[in-house]
Amino acid sequence: MYYSSTRDSSIRLTASEAVLKGLSDDGGLFVPSEFPTLPVSLEELADMDYKETAFAVMKGYLDDYTEDELKDCIDKAYDSKFDTEEIVPMAEADKAYYLELFHGPTIAFKDMALSILPHLLTTAVKKNRSDKEVVILTATSGDTGKAALAGFADVPGTRIIVFYPKDGVSNVQKLQMVTQNGNNTFVVGVDGNFDDCQSEVKAIFGDADLRKKMADAGFAFSSANSMNIGRLVPQIAYYVFAYGRLVKNGRIRPGDEINVCVPTGNFGNILAAFFAKRSGLPIKTFICASNDNKVLFDFFKTGVYDKNRQFILTDSPSMDILISSNLERLIYMSAGCDAQKNKKLMESLAKEGKYEITADMKEFMDSFVGEYADWAESSGKIRSLYENTGYIIDTHTAVAAAAYDKYVHDTGDKTVTVIASTASPFKFARSVLKAIDKKYEDGEDFELINILSEKANVDIPPAIEEIRDAKVIHDTVCKREGMRDYVLNNMGLR
Predict the structure, then answer these.
(1) What percentage of the chain exceeds 70 in pLDDT?
(2) Are 345 and 361 in contact (CB under 8 A)?
(3) Is residue 322 part of a domain?
(4) What is the number of structural domains in the chain?
């Protein structure tokens, strides 16, 4: 197994080298040379716990990690920091199965991968005998930032710099980041949107002169975004685990196909499900759910990816993205792993803001269906689900749930479907409550959180309680043009 760049097939790295590097020097993303088949049967999945499932999935993709190394990383990641022994419970509501990916320390799905990435990374440093301090450079639309900060806080040999759109995240998301402790953690609000943050981070990664300057000073960049294969591979595991639970609970038989519906921004979460299928999981349809920033919905309908449109701030801010970086991996595969063909399309996106795929590439993606839901539809789903079942979902999961309803209405497809529930409703209490009843539109954040706890009959998560009176540690703000200077100053290179 080796990993090559989506823009240069001659690049060949081991799994640990790809995890350590994060992003290829040419701006491409690392993809595996093959898709390992699941080493256990679908029947066996039903009797496996989360750690066992994660090991079975990851050992094929991360094959230069020893069995002991990988098991150690998994044991350290999926422990008491999760508030349920099952790690990923699944709730059945309104004829769908909600895979609750938010039971980790920062109550968002990013914990599923960012709890293990620091351990994979530090193991990779030792395996590759690197003497560099690893600088984790990350852009976030809201959830990755806190999960990465929590994962890497005070990890020896690393420092982490997180850039977030200062007016593009919820207040709880912002508080989670700016109150983060850790001598190696740095958080910067950017006067712009997520795409501005992400594009500039990728530009900094691609600066060859800067990389040399850093190397000479004893530093090396890596990423905690889903652009890092060490983020993507752990996400495959929870789809495999979900299938096993459906078998165990008698909802499907081994070998039955399922659908997955994923609220999608940067495309990493749904791509992990696609990787699961390539490894043998029977998935029929990938329902890619978008909010009002429906660039992916339009892409799957037309074959044209066009980011030249208004950027809309919504109540599902982690999906407010117009450049879905992980889509590049699917584009590369759909082009027959032709790196030059993919590179030309990415250059067109950078220069003209759009590209168009061929009919053959579109056919490769025929298991993907684009759907979207606006605020009226997703808030209506929050309200109806609560009124009919008592189950409360967050605003991102609501986009997926509403999109799923539209998909079923349009197709009549009643295949058992897993909806990725990506965040706790407590992270977006104001929006969730105003969807249930408009009288909750006003009010102080933590007062609304208390009300939500009563309505949901669920205890307030520790991740929320710990920021009620936490001190703001990070108050730096800059423009997009100032991000590079901040990085250089942080490392003492100016």
Answers:
(1) 100
(2) no
(3) yes
(4) 1
